[in-house]
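Lecture 7, part B: from sequences to assemblies.

Below are the input chains for today's worked example.
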Amino acid sequence: MALLPRNAKAGMEGVDKEKMQRIVYETSKGSKYFENEEKKEALLRQKIENMRAQRAKLSAADLSHYQTVADRRILELEATRDLSRIWLHADMDAFYAAVETLSNPSLKGKPMAVGGMSMISTANYEARRFGVRAAMPGFIARKLCPELIFVPTDFKKYTHYSELTRKVFEKYDPNFMAASLDEAYLDITEVCKERSMSGGEIAEELRKCVNEETGLTCSAGVAPNRLLAKVCSDINKPNGQFVLTNDRMAVMTFIFSLPIRKIGGIGKVTEHILRDAFGISTCEEMLQKGGLLCALFSHSTADFFLSVGLGIGRTDTPQVSSRKSISSERTFSATDDETLLYQKLADIAEMLCTDMKKGGLCGRTLTLKLKTASFEVRSRAVTSEKYFSSSEDILKYASKLLKAELPISLRPTLVSFQ
DNA sequence: ATACATACC
DNA sequence: GACTGGTATGTAT
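Predicted structure of the full complex, as structure tokens:
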């Protein structure tokens, strides 16, 4: 059985999900992509089996030891709980699609997706009712919704509107953290205090202001930390908000019934592992099974799981760290023509070099990412003595890496690390 | 340092 | 017919 694609998004009530699943399945069944997905799922099942076996091997003494470890760690984490800050997570509603509708109002009310036949990056709410969603290939989306309108991606436009929203965010928190073009975290503790307003009142005002400045709507979550604020912004999407008060009991009540998949950082795979190997589906169960988690996961992963169970997240404002990598990748139809592969590599090297020059960046490690015709992904890296940034250097290292892989049928990529 | 996986938008 | 692209981070070796 295939894994479910992604979170069911808002606006999907009263829709024939089974029929949609079947269309998605029928459309991709038998493809190279599908075969690769099945292979990955088999590996995941294997990994889960291994974890179940490890779990079964734990003696009563082990279990009691790790329970003690978990109990102590829970107390330590609880001691770090900070309820003094108010965080707001702002999330634009169907951002790219909404921007495109703004510049072409005739799209209003019609199912529409931003992207093309190979991939969709955003679907508006009308399209979501048909099961169309981000990260779905366009040709499948069109099967789900034959009248779907496709609009090509235009990052310049989205960047412009993103800047408008950021001017608003700045007024509430000059140090706000941009998470992407359409999402940001704001520490609104000070502004709440200065203006004697609640987090919810600030959120209402901010959303109204964003709407006036851009014509777009957004949703907001207000909570004592960023992890919770992010969960909250999704609750009353679109054009809504949700406030979680700075009260330990309120936080615990909220988090306990929450499915773990709602938490940022817990994706499809982690959800599957925790459910099938440990019977964990809600955040409360993270705490209840804390001993097992401490026994079978690394220190940092177990810590993350336990803090999720406690509803503890980051409340600090880290200074903006410099970027750690820059990459350029392009997927093309599979070929084993070596001359063509080198040509593609040169093109990507050129694009990467352009981006590096633009950012005034250079790197020491070059990673060549290869996608085979069967959708398998490989990476090969070299680290040089000195930093480099010229397209000649990039191509020199990349060619060497590619040469070692030939002969091969590829649809590749190129990455450079710092 | 390298390879690969996971996650997020 | 067709399943992205950019960045960060975790885990294992």
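Note for the exam: Residues 40, 95, 121-122, 134-135, 179-183, 264-270, 365, 367, 377-383 of chain A lie near DNA strand B (CB under 10 Å from a C1'). Keep this in mind when comparing with the next example.
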